[in-house]
Amino acid sequence: MTRIVAGAAGGIPLKSVPGDSTRPTTDRVKEALFSRLESYDVLANARVLDLYAGAGSLGIEAASRGARSVLLVELAPKAVAVCQTNAGLVNKALRNSALVSVRRGSVDSVLDSFAPVPGGTAGKSWNLVFMDPPYPLSEEELATTLEKVSLVLDVDATVVIERSTRSPEPIWPAGMERFAEKKYGETRLWFAEPIQVGTK
Predict the structure, then answer these.
(1) Phi, psi of 165 (to 5 degrees)
(2) pLDDT band per the 50, 70, 90 thresholds, residue 135
């Protein structure tokens, strides 16, 4: 059973996506990940984007631990329905009906909708981005998506990518660099942040 590990809504059980189409983050990995994020002081009042959300457990955990707003992005209809149920649970527990929202669509199309217009700035500026892409996603496809992510980040943002330990390090776009990584069993977490191109 998946649950909210800690925070104001800690202990609340979450619905899981039926079947094996998603790969839920284990409570052990989730607890270690959020302990690290709290040490980085990136959770309080963060605007959180949970891409390839599955059941939405990472974004919802962030909401429980003090995020200002969370958007769960998922394409699969069954997963979208579960995200909506879980978002409703945490929003009710935290008495904030707008805290966690769900958007159905492909990750790239949603990111494109936030992209900066010529001569303007990005429509959204995210402080914390979770990415747990399905393993069949190629490294080239992931690199393309990371390029889009780099365009919608706040200057002090943190990006977390969850992959199999058998997967290579992601190909970072020019505006982003890795600053940490951590292995937990068969899972590896990559932590990245935006940089000003030409400053490194």
Answers:
(1) -65, -15
(2) confident
- Domains of the chain by range and CATH? 26-194 (3.40.50.150)
Q: Are 9 and 90 in contact (CB under 8 A)?
A: yes
pTM of the model: 0.93
Q: What is the pLDDT of residue 200?
A: 46
Neighbours of 15 (CB within 10 A): 18
Q: Residue 175 and residue 198: Cα distance in Å, rounded?
A: 9
- What does the pLDDT look like over 41-74, one tens digit per residue? 999 999 999 999 999 999 999 999 999 999 999 9
Smallest CA-to-CA distance from 152 within 191, 105, 200, 110 is with 110
Q: Which residues make beta-bridge pairs with 36?
A: none
